[in-house]
Amino acid sequence: MFFVDASHFVHGAFLCYLWSFVRLFLRTPSGRQRFNVLGALDYSTKQLVTVTNLTYITAETVCQLLTALAAQSPGVPLTLVLDNARYQHCRLVQDLAESLGIELLFLPSYSPNLNLIERLWKFIKGECLNGKYYETFDAFQASIEDCLAKIPTEHREALESLITRNFQLFDKEAFLQV
User: Fold this and answer.
1) Which pLDDT belongs to residue 109?
2) Taken in order 164, 141, 129, 111, is the CA torsion positive or negative?
3) Domain of residue 94, residue span
4) pLDDT of 28
5) 63 and 42 Cβ atoms separated by less than 8 Å
6) Which of 80, 114, 138, 144 lies at 20 to 30 Å from 106 by C-alpha?
7) Taking residues 20-38, what's their average pLDDT?
8) What is the pLDDT of residue 142?
9) CATH code of residue 74
10) pLDDT digits over 157-174, tens only?
11) Residue 172, pLDDT score
12) Residue 143: pLDDT above 60?
């Protein structure tokens, strides 16, 4: 079972908390270049399969990911847990998934807390973006790629505690009381 989602990392300022007696001015990159990562996280092995680009995540990008997943596990039934992004619901993706024997399991709308890969994206942003300045977009992109590459090694222990079956659920009655 793979949890699938895209993250769009923007080369910009990501401030963390700072307390100071003196006003500080921090350098920030200008522009809005994006590094897009479409990832599939295996719940049990914590293996990550990614497709990256600098433009947009589209149905063709999702098809590239499906093909990569099917190629690495031939003959093994796969289930992908996805959110409701339009490019994942289209006929092109659904037809390819069916031909590759991949089951697409769509989460209910507005429930990102049920997609475990969201925890990975938060971890990556904390490691690579918060409070960091990158002079160039290439350095920014290299930092994210390096962090993604270290998931099975250096970051494995952190992911073991993040990627669990503990989900935040809300009690209906708490919202209905007046």
Assistant:
1) 85
2) negative
3) 2-11+32-165
4) 74
5) no
6) 144
7) 80
8) 95
9) 3.30.420.10
10) 888 878 777 766 556 555
11) 59
12) yes
Number of domains making up the chain: 1
8 A C-beta contact, residue 152 and residue 46: yes
SS (H, E, C) the chain: CEEEEEEEEECCCCCCCCCCCCCCCCCCCCCCCEEEEEEEEECCCCCEEEEEECCCCCHHHHHHHHHHHHHHCCCCCEEEEECCCHHHHCHHHHHHHHHHCEEEEECCCCCHHHCCHHHHHHHHHHHHCCCCCCCCHHHHHHHHHHHHHCCCCCCHHHHHHHCCCCCCCCCHHHHHCC
| Sequence-distant (≥ 6) Cβ neighbours of residue 153 within 8 angstroms | none
Both tokens assigned to 81: 């847990």
In a domain, 20, yes or no: no
